[in-house]
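Good morning,

Attaching, inline, the backbone tokens for the sequence recovery test we're adding to the shared suite. The designed sequence is right after.
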């Protein structure tokens, strides 16, 4: 259900979906009236304009005791670095996976504490603050990394959320529209996920994947396939913060 909602918020071109988003009190970045303003202010990012042949793999909803280690294994084989958007209440259960991520050179980023849509659709700044700060503190305590990127559950956006993000000097890490392979859908094969990404690849993209969804082992397979192909083509796989340093946020 959680992920189904995400899928809906990403279908940003449809008027019906736009109305759905309105009706539940949220917007996605593409349809929010302030989208361009926030992108110009560099508070929301969907890709990076760069002359480097580099992209960022981003993984949401972990850490998961089975799927996240499989993803880490795939990344390690190709010496690729990625950004993991972790959920605080899962971090509490798997601190050793977080330590491993950090030790292997990955970036840990914030994906809220509860991943609860009702918490976010309340649109209350104090709830946003608690969700974000609690997870940031856990990440810092476990890995010594201070997270600088926040990805709202389901892509939720509002003026209240953006104002808080600005106050906390964070960036809202969206993703590149063409690089949502829907890897989380149960039954999607690793090959299909990899093919989607390979077909659409362009330098500077932020690629959306899920190590914490039930299809996560297929996501790990996809990572193997796409890294094999794209590293041969000269692509570098860097963390999202590293990618931002290689160009201009868009
Ligand atoms: Zn999520």
């Amino acid at each position: 259900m959680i992920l189904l909602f995400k899928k809906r918020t990403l279908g940003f071109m449809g008027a019906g979906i736009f109305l759905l988003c309105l009706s539940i009190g949220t917007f996605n970045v593409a349809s929010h009236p302030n989208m361009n303003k926030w992108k110009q202010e560099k508070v929301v990012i969907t890709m990076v304009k760069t002359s480097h042949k580099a992209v960022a793999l981003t993984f949401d909803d972990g850490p998961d005791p089975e799927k996240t280690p499989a993803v880490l294994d795939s990344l390690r084989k190709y010496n690729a670095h990625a950004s993991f958007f972790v959920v605080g209440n899962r971090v509490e259960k798997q601190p050793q996976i977080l330590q491993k991520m950090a030790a292997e050179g990955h970036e840990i980023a914030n994906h809220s504490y509860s991943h609860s849509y009702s918490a976010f659709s309340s649109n209350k700044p104090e709830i946003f603050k608690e969700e974000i700060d609690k997870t940031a503190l856990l990440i810092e305590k476990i890995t010594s990394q201070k997270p600088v990127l926040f990805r709202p559950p389901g892509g939720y956006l509002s003026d209240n959320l953006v104002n808080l993000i600005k106050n906390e000097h964070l960036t809202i890490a969206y993703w590149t529209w063409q690089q949502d392979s829907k890897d989380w859908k149960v039954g999607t094969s690793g090959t299909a996920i990899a093919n989607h990404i390979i077909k659409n690849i362009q330098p500077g993209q932020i690629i959306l994947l899920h190590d914490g969804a039930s299809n996560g082992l297929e996501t790990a397979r996809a990572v193997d396939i796409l890294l094999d192909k794209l590293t041969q083509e000269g692509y570098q796989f860097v963390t999202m913060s590293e990618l931002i340093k290689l160009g201009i946020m868009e």
